[in-house]
Amino acid sequence: MTLQTRLLGLTALALAGALAGDLLGSTALAAAGFALAFLALAVLFAAMTGALARGVAAAPRSAIREPRTGR
Question: Under 8 Å CB-to-CB from 48, ≥6 apart: which residues?
């Protein structure tokens, strides 16, 4: 399981907790759920940006740019 998958699951659980807090009338539980969901989404976007940057930096060179040999 990757970090991004875990963070997405945490976000879903936090939103479910916020919904449960709202249904139960618990302002503190709803606020904590939304705050945790916001933080989890922020970390998820940062992890996705880092993965994208690492993928672009590690991309292999294009075969078009390589000089031809043997001709």
Answer: 4
